[in-house]
Amino acid sequence: MNTLTLTLLNVPMLTWSVIIGTFVFIIIIRMLFAICRLYKSKGSGKMITIGRECEEFYAPGDDPTYDVNDSDLNASPDYDEYEGK
Amino acid sequence: MKVNETKAPSEAAPSVGDVASFLSEYASWLLGCGATCIRLEKNMNRMAAAYDCDLAMSILPRHIHLTLFDRRNCESATSVVTTKRTPISFNINTRLSRLSWRVADHKESFDDARRLMERIVSNDPQNRWVMMLLASLANASFCRLFGGDPIAMAIVFAATFAGLWLKGVMMRHKFDARLVWFVCAFVSSVLGATDSLFSLGTTPDVALGTSVLYLVPGIPLLNSFSDMLYRHYICAFSRFTDAMILTCCLSAGLGMGMMLMNASMF
After folding, report:
1. CA-CA distances (angstroms) from residue B157 to A66, B196, B212?
2. Helix (H, G, I), strand (E, B) or coil at A78
3. Partner residue facing B191 (CB), from A12, A13, A19
4. Are B261 and A12 in contact (CB under 8 A)?
5. Secondary structure (H, E, C), B30-97
6. pLDDT tens digit sequence for B178-232
7. Which residues of B touch A (CB under 8 A)?
8. From the CA atom positions of chain A, what is the Rg in Å?
9. Of the ranges A6-10, B41-45, B178-182, B246-250, which one carries the lowest mean pLDDT score?
10. Strand order in the sheet with B75-82
11. Is the ipTM of this complex over 0.95?
């Protein structure tokens, strides 16, 4: 009898918890899917990547090519011409 | 030199069959998105007159039957179309009515009018999140009007927002409207009973009662009354029956929620 009374008393709390729990679960799942879609739409699929130097320090008018690694100046033939070698 | 930007209507007049096809499509969308029968009659007659046609139409709850008579060459065309099953949208309703005025004023050619109608019905620019936010605020305001305290208002806001979101998801997945109403009323009433469950505020009964007000089918009821005034009795009765069935589903959901939450309003 006591168990039955306890169960009946808990029905509102159980119902409320199920509804709230379901909503929270759905919100978390949808947020995860949204984050995944966001990163997939950017193309890389990675949350953290190392950028190139010209992406970090770009001034208007710079050549936006990514072929030459401008951090390694010795490897650039243009730099040799500039130095007069 | 001043350039006249008003589009000239195309020279070739459309055939009566094309006009009947266009008008029947227009009518099915206009009635589907929540217009009254008198609005449909006015818009359709206005556009038919612009194409030198006489229009006779019978509006049934699920179908529209129209016959168009071309006064210029004494041809006629008949079209029967099923009403679109779309959510009520005053935005589409207004834009379609505006289109009918543009056609009546000969500002749009027939082809342009068709293209515009396609664009209107395929592009409803209202943001659903903004709509949900405003509807939730409105419901919270109702709670205040009925004497609810700020805690009850906050609970009603959350219950309405959750219910509207669930309603949108279920409608997009093509669930039956009666089931959607029942489930949303149940969920909103359970969330609305938070106040009484945790004894948070002083007006838990107001929070519970107003948490499902957003589901009251007000527009079908108003349209039904309007149709009755203009003697469209079949449509009026159909809309009234639809509204009553939805109200019954709402009541069943609310009743079930109250029973499980051991809540009483009075």
Report:
1. 52, 16, 11
2. helix
3. A19
4. yes
5. HHHCCCCHHHHHHHHHHHHHHCCEEEEEEECCCEEEEEEEECCCCEEEEEEEECCCCCCCHHHHHHHH
6. 999 999 999 999 999 998 888 888 888 999 999 999 999 999 999 999 999 999 9
7. 162, 187, 190-191, 193-194, 197, 260-263
8. 30
9. A6-10
10. B53-59, B63-70, B75-82
11. no
Which residues in chain A have their CB less than 8 angstroms from residue B190's CB? Answer: 15-16, 19
Q: How far apart are CA B60 and CA B105, in angstroms?
A: 29
Contact B260/A15, CB-based, under 8 Å? yes
What pLDDT, on a 0 to 100 scale, did the predictor assign at position B214? 93
Which of A19, A20, A26, A30 best probes binding to B when mutated, by most B CB atoms within 10 angstroms?
A19
Phi/psi at B259 (nearest 5 deg)?
A: -65, -45
Residue B194: closest CA among chain A residues belongs to which residue? A16
Question: Which residues, including other chains, have CB under 8 Å from residue B169's CB and lie 6 or more apart?
Answer: none
Query: What whole-number distance in Å separates Cα of residue B24 and Cα of residue B140?
Result: 41
Task: Tell how far CA B28 is from the center of its chain.
Answer: 13
Identify residues of A whose CB sits under 8 angstroms from chain B CBs: 11-13, 15-16, 19-20, 23
Say if the Cβ atoms of A15 and B262 lie within 8 Å: no
* Nearest Cα to Cα of residue B206 among B155, B138, B257, B137: B155
Q: Length of chain B in residues, anyone? A: 266
Q: In sequence order, what are the residues at sequence separation of 6 or more whose Cβ sits closer than 8 angstroms to the Cβ of residue B147? A: B203, B206
Rounded Cα gap, residues B32 and B64, in angstroms: 11
- The residue in chain A having the minimum alpha-carbon distance to the alpha carbon of residue B192 is A16
A12/B194 touch (CB, cutoff 8 Å), yes or no: no
Nearest-by-CA chain A residue for B198:
A13
User: Which position has the token pair 């936006």?
Assistant: A64
Look at residue A54 and tell me whether its pLDDT is greater than 80.
Answer: no
Contact B59, B31 (CB under 8 A): yes
Residue of chain A nearest B193, judged by CA positions: A16
CA distance A81 to B206: 82
